[in-house]
Design goal:
This protein is α/β, with parallel strands linked by helices. The protein is built from six helices and five strands, in the order αβαβαααβββα. Helix 1 packs across helix 2 and helix 1 runs parallel beside helix 6.
Amino acid sequence: MDAQYLLPDDLVALARQVVEANRKAGRRIAVAESCTGGLVSAALTEIPGSSEVFEAGYVTYSNAAKISELNVSLDVVETFGAVSVATAWAMAQGALEASGADVAVAITGIAGPDGGTEQKPVGTVVFARAERRPGPDEIVADQKLLDASAGRSGIRHQAALCALELLLP
């Protein structure tokens, strides 16, 4: 780990790519995080000049916060669960609207070591990206099963890398 940065080198390197690519594209970005607890926002703000592209980060760990801060519907959370494509998509849309950014990425998942079920084991993480553009909304969402043997911090690290990749234009 480079002593000048708080976070692992791979996160910082990818965050640098995200900041530079979005600066070139003239895009402002926002992040809505649950299981990563602000890790993606922290990685982005490790980069000098990130304020040119990084509009806002929302850490909405509880369902109540997802509902109140990002305008996620209670029906969505109750019907599909906090760790679902529907909730991640609503979080991304909410971050886009709340921030006024051009693109927003949301992450929600089960980092463990507890909380997993047979249907959604520890390591289940859902990502969504919403973009402000004319025409119909393009939904980009994916559910991944990350390597649970890496432990809680490893799952969060992997999830942060996936989210940063989604912020590349």
